[in-house]
Specification:
By secondary structure, the protein is an alpha+beta fold. The protein contains four helices and 14 strands. The protein has helices at 11-16, 89-97, 103-106, 152-159; strands at residues 3-7, 26-30, 51-53, 55-61, 77-85, 87-88, 112-114, 118-119, 130-135, 138-144, 170-172, 180-181, 187-192, 195-201. The radius of gyration is 16 Å and the shape is globular. The structure holds zinc ion.
């Protein structure tokens, strides 16, 4: 399986990182070794002094597809989850400055938290899902999928022009504003439509 991530998909987060608003979705990949195994904590890697959380809505692909038309995208997933795209921001900024790929800052071991999955049919409108991240019981990120620059079905169509989507692939659909640094001892808890989907210890 592969993990495809979308960068800069919420206007307020683009502003907070002082990035340019892209004319097309920004894509990058995480390897399967980035997944945090069930019930494991997140370990802050020693190569970074500024690892940040990014809470994101996740889509799990359930059939193979290439060059998918947006109107058919909904046929390619039936489960939605919530995840954290852990980012070594200091390292990412160094690499960005040099125009180099981000992979070390975004794809390192343990950089992808994937929650349990919820059937899409449980939701009335996937383009208006509220989600939230709490750090030590305080809300740090909160948004709705309504604020996405590219909606889920548009993302699937766009991604599938470049990468064949396969069963089990996961799409991270981008983070809203409020990203911040994690410290050892923190507890991150994620909610989708007020349902808790993960709770993760930082070590
Ligand atoms: Zn992200």
């Amino acid at each position: 399986m592969k993990i495809i991530c979308v960068g800069r998909n919420y206007g307020d987060h683009i502003k907070e990182l002082e990035n340019e608003r892209p004319s097309e979705p920004v894509l990058f990949l995480k390897p399967d070794t980035s997944l945090i195994l069930k019930n494991q904590p997140f370990f802050i890697p020693d190569f970074s002094d500024n690892v940040q959380y990014e809470v994101e809505v996740l889509i799990k692909i359930n059939r193979i597809g290439k060059h998918i038309q947006p109107k058919f995208s909904h046929k390619y997933y039936d489960e939605i989850g919530l995840g954290v795209d852990f980012t070594a921001r200091d390292l990412q900024n160094q690499l960005k400055e040099k125009g180099l790929p981000w992979e070390k800052a975004k794809g390192f071991d343990g950089s992808a938290l994937v929650s349990s999955w919820v059937k899409k049919s449980k939701f009335t409108d996937i383009n208006d899902l509220s989600f939230q991240l709490q750090k030590n019981n305080e809300v740090v990120q909160q948004a709705s999928t309504q604020s996405m620059l590219w909606k889920i079905d548009e993302l699937i169509a766009y991604i599938s022009q470049f990468f064949t989507l396969k069963i089990g692939d996961i799409i991270f659909t981008g983070t809203p504003s409020g990203v911040g640094k994690v410290a050892s001892g923190d507890q991150l808890t994620g909610f989708l439509e007020n349902q808790q989907l993960f709770s993760l210890k930082i070590k």
